[in-house]
Amino acid sequence: MKNDLIEPIKLAKTEAKLSGEMPIAALPRLAENLIAECDAITYVLDFSKDSAHRTLIQGKVEAELPMLCQRCLKPTKVKLTCDMNLAIVKTEEQAEALPEGLEPLLMAEDTVPLAIVIEDEVLLALPLVVLHESGSCSASAKLADINAKFEMSDERKHPFASLKDVL
To answer: Would you say the pTM of this structure is higher than 0.85?
Structure first.
């Protein structure tokens, strides 16, 4: 699966659809961010041409990835759903000229490994900071207590507060 090459231009001419599962072993850059083995990533891709004759890859990639919560340093599952809307381009100039809503997929050749296309989209969709879902992190309660104490300490007396009455 890792070395499966696709030809997006040919696939777009026939309006092909690809779907399946990509094993994590085929995605080494993603695998190094995970703390455990996980199920494969599922994908559905539609290849087509738009009215400007651009080759498009549109679809969805879904995954549930085991990662480390950066707040409590315990395992958490990150559920990702990435919508893809790629346009095949050969040059940087073509990439810059794409309309809003289309992301460039720069291809110097006619083929590209399917795993790289999927892996790039998943890596871009990962959160900058991985956290448990709201309310399910063991560190959240501790942080709430610390914040409450900090807010209470802000209500202290100000030594020069009585000067405002004098002026």
So the answer is: no
Backbone torsions φ then ψ of 80, nearest 5 degrees: -115, 140
Burial class (CB in 10 A: 0-12, 13-18, 19+), 148: exposed
Report the Cα–Cα distance between both ends of the chain, in Å, rounded. 78
Q: DSSP E strands: which ranges in the chain?
A: 5-6, 17-22, 41-49, 55-68, 75-89, 103-106, 112-113
Q: What angle do CA 41, 87, 57 make, to 5 degrees?
A: 40
Dihedral sign for Cα 113, 115, 118, 122, please: negative
Q: How far is CA 42 from CA 87, 106, 165, in A?
A: 21, 23, 69
Pairing of strands 55-68, 75-89: antiparallel
The answer to whether residues 69 and 75 touch, using CB atoms and an 8 Å cutoff, is yes
Strand, coil or helix: 30:
helix
DSSP assigned state of 140: H
**Per-residue pLDDT tens over the stretch 23-81:** 999 999 999 989 888 888 999 999 999 999 999 999 999 999 999 888 888 888 999 99
